[in-house]
Design goal:
By secondary structure, the protein is of the alpha/beta class. It has nine helices and 13 strands. InterPro entries: AAA+_ATPase (IPR003593), ABC_transporter-like_ATP-bd (IPR003439), ABC_Transporter_VariousFunc (IPR051782), P-loop_NTPase (IPR027417).
């Protein structure tokens, strides 16, 4: 679905994305997470063909983003503020979509608008935030793309509208088999709908893979105070905290934890993501990124 090799984007002297190497299989629903300024929107803009790389290369659905009408037809993109034209009605948005997209599915668009209860005669500027987000999603889906890129589509929605949006998105994924890359600050939303995770920190990818695999290979260890450097070589320390007598470590490993001194517990997705957003543990290095397929 998406492949990047050494991908980077620089604005003047600042790298918004740096040395990004990823390979995401087709048909995944990907959660793209990270703090503000980490490069999430930049990656999505590059994947959509809205901007060109400064370094490296990116491939989406087998082609170079923005390379021509056939490639553009493969990608649906809903930008961060779910843009719509305030002076156009819902019906006019659908007619515009039909004019701009050769693969436009008019029946799909019309059925979604009816099911969502959107008034075709209503101007977009008079819709609620949730309704505008659903209209933008309808435009993205009705072009019948192979992959749908969503940049913080639910950030401004209330919890009820957000839940409805995500439920509708998953029904679309199940019905039409479209792949999704969903940028979000809300880990609970990512956990609800995504099966793949990409975490960006400081314009770089620090964690990527299938969510089930990532959770299965991370463990929290609690036990007598210990220098993390003394752990076995296959236990890569992500974070470490210490009291006078106790150490708590989050480690990444593919092997069982056999040391009886440790109390071993599983880690949830939110704790896992937050751990990778924190500075690396002292006297240790963060585990080398491995893209899990």
């Amino acid at each position: 679905m998406l492949r990047a090799r050494g991908l980077g984007k620089r604005y003047r002297q600042r790298w918004a994305l740096s040395d990004c190497t990823l390979e995401i299989p087709a048909g995944r629903v990907v959660g793209l997470v990270g703090p503000n300024g980490a490069g999430k929107s930049t990656l999505l803009n590059l994947a959509a063909g809205m901007s060109a790389p400064t370094a490296g290369e990116v491939e989406v659905c087998g082609g170079r983003p923005g390379s021509g009408p056939a490639q553009l037809a493969k990608v649906g993109f809903v930008a961060q503020d779910a843009p719509t034209y305030a002076s156009l009605t819902v019906a006019e948005h659908l007619r515009l979509g039909a004019r701009l997209n050769p693969g436009w599915d008019a029946d799909l668009a019309r059925d979604r608008v009816e099911r969502l209860g959107l008034d075709p005669a209503q101007r977009a500027g008079r819709l609620s935030g949730g309704q505008r987000a659903q209209l933008a999603l309808t435009l993205g889906i009705a072009k019948r793309p192979e992959v749908l890129l969503l940049d913080e589509p639910v950030a401004a929605l209330d919890p009820l509208a957000r839940r409805g949006f995500l439920q509708d998105l998953m029904e679309t994924v199940a019905e039409h088999g479209v792949g999704v890359v969903l940028s979000s600050h809300l880990i609970t939303d990512v956990e609800r709908v995504c099966d793949h995770l990409v975490t960006l920190v400081g314009s770089r990818v620090v964690l990527a893979g299938e969510i089930d695999d990532l959770l299965a290979t991370h463990r929290r260890l609690t036990g007598p105070r210990r220098d993390p450097a003394t752990l076995p070589a296959d236990q890569h320390v992500v974070t470490a905290s210490h009291t006078d007598r106790q150490s708590t470590l989050l480690v990444r490993t593919g092997s069982p934890i056999l040391d009886p001194a440790w109390a071993v517990s599983e880690v949830g997705l939110e704790d896992l993501v937050i751990a990778y957003l924190e500075p690396p543990a002292p006297a240790t290095s963060r585990p080398t990124l491995e893209v899990l397929r």
